[in-house]
Amino acid sequence: MDSSAIFAVTAIASAIGGLALWAVQRSSKSKEPTFPSLPKWPLLGNILDYADASFTKRINSYPTPVWFSLPGFMGPILLVHDPDQARYVSSKAVSSRIVFGEPKLTTLFGGYESIFGATGKEHKRLRVLSMKAVSKNAMKQQFPLLQDLARETLENMARNPKAETQGISCLPHFQKLAFNAICIFMAGGDEAQLNQLVGLYDDFIDISHGFKAMFLPPFLEYFNGGLKAKAFEAQARILTKVSEITNERRCAMEDGNIYSDALSSLIEARDENGSSLSDRDIGFMFLVLCGAGFETTSMQLTTIFYFITNMVSNTDLEALQQEVDSFGELSESNLSQSPILNAFVKESLRIFNVAPFVIRIATEDFTLDGVNVPANSLFAAFHERGSLIEGGEAFELKRYLGDPSFDKDEFMPFGTGERRCLGFQLAMLEIKIVIAELLRGFVATKGVGKAKHVHVGTRLIESPVCIRPK
Ligand code: HEM
């Protein structure tokens, strides 16, 4: 089943769930509505809104905060889109994020055991233990491998016979790239181990499909070929393989071998009590990094290629090209000191973000601008700034090049606070390398065909891209 079919079924299932919820609420004869601004038909109304690609464009028409409903979530969600409110709730210590719906939905990525589902002290412990592994310095070590990966991906794209005239879809190429980049980051210090991780791609895809099926009612498992069951089998294979690799690596490190990748940092990491991550923790960490870094980076890169071939002005592209040409050899340091490339990526993330809001759960009651938010309720902090600011849909590099009229801090593409994206350094580096390699060695232009918006929780805009070597 492809993702739009899964979405359609999810929407219908959620609508049925919503109606059931509505019926339960009615039958409980509660005179005092807990969530006053929910539509009369819970879920259904908002599903139709949300499934429409222009949802984020109309977000301004909603009050903030407002009780809302989203597909895949059975309860009401407090939607917040004012920048100060969004920053406040995202950084709140009382809030701990539920990544995609209920933590039990993330069982494929470790659920309560992993950084996705863990809350409070356990979440903090897992973050402390993984901090060094995801540092900027850790990324630097893997730069040459990431650069080769970007170049090979673009060459592969250009090799497709359709790339010359009609144009191709970038997404499958960037999905492979995003997965391989995480493998490089994890085990790039040992070629054989890296190849073993790369070989887990098909298993990860099974997990990814199975995860989407987690939102569906159990009886649909019979009709969709057992997506959930296949995903759990794939999860077991990945955990076993990562555990074997981790074991092997531990032994090699004990023998005095030194590695510079995330796997060795995760093995070495100790918290304040001296405790370390188990092989299972590390297995789930790999799954979480793939779960969080696969769709996000690949969809965002695909959207960026849409911008490059459809929206960005020649002046902006020339400025970017000049900066990239001035680098000489590409390196991590010239990419991190590249004001125009930096502005380019941030402007893309600002206009259309793969994850326009983050969803958290309140771990205690709080009040936001007079609205009572009971403990255990969900809230979504909307942070994309494309349509929320005047003239915000235009692609303008100057916003991130010192334009005083633009408040850069309004926008949080990777979230903020204790749940801030763990992989943002890797994501930024990956995206920058691909754009730099594109401008150094290839020409990308608009292909034949209409743009499509995909909006299934995460989002992208895509149109066919022609790509050829310079
Ligand atoms: C363009 C790419 C990406 C975007 C836009 C993005 C965005 C986000 C956002 C908005 C959050 C939630 C933050 C919050 O709740 O405040 C998040 C969490 C997370 N991201 Fe990313 N991300 C991207 C790529 C990656 C990559 C490549 C990785 C790993 C390799 C990654 C790993 C994570 C993890 C582990 C979390 C959960 C952190 C926690 O709960 O403590 N992300 N990301």
Q: What labels would you give this structure?
A:
binds protoporphyrin IX containing FE, two-stranded antiparallel sheet, 17 helices, five-stranded mixed β-sheet, 470 residues, Cytochrome p450, single chain, 11 strands, alpha+beta
Q: What would you note in describing this structure?
A:
A hairpin with a 1-residue loop joins strand 9 and strand 10 (458-462). The chain has one domain (3-469): Cytochrome P450 (Cytochrome p450). It contains 17 helices and 11 strands. The protein has helices at 3-27, 44-51, 83-91, 120-131, 136-141, 143-159, 162-165, 171-187, 191-198, 201-213, 227-254, 262-268, 279-310, 314-325, 332-336, 339-351, 424-441; strands at residues 66-68, 77-80, 95-97, 357-362, 366-368, 371-373, 378-382, 442-446, 452-456, 458-462, 465-469. A 5-stranded mixed β-sheet has the order 1-2-7-4-3, covered by helices on one side. A two-stranded antiparallel sheet has the order 5-6. The structure holds protoporphyrin IX containing FE. It comes from Rhizoclosmatium globosum. It holds the Pfam family p450. Belongs to the cytochrome P450 family.
